[in-house]
Amino acid sequence: MRTGLYPGTFDPVTLGHVDIIRRACTLVDRLVIGVAINRDKSPLFTLEERVAMIEAECAALSDETGVEIIAHPFENLLIDCANDVGAQIIVRGLRAVADFEYEYQMVGMNRALDDRVETVFLMADAAHQAIASKLVKEIARLDGDVSKFVTPAVEAALKDRLG
Description:
The chain is 45% helix and 20% strand. The protein is an alpha/beta fold.
């Protein structure tokens, strides 16, 4: 069984994230969505809320693809999380060249820590390349329309959280 790990903060999960999850399902039998606990960031949603969003957004996709998709909170090193969940592959989404520069450094460090785990980069669909959770939250804070960037359930959660 091939297991992949797709890590991120997912605050909130966007259509770009869902696109990468869908693409990753073509590569693995089991996909673990690593929901990062990052104390350096101040997430809008709690860890429990972010995990619940991932689970809700991925339930139908799991049924559709036949791939087991599970949400897994983590706070340790990414490579340690990969080993904890039995992942042979780390899946990373790329939007632009700037993403690649950061990810390139991460791959080098992860390979130095454990060269048994491969990293696979997936490009977001062109329709989703500009989507960033940070920008979605800013648009929502300013009462803008985020319906092009998130699912209706996530849009409702943003409106509820931000009033």
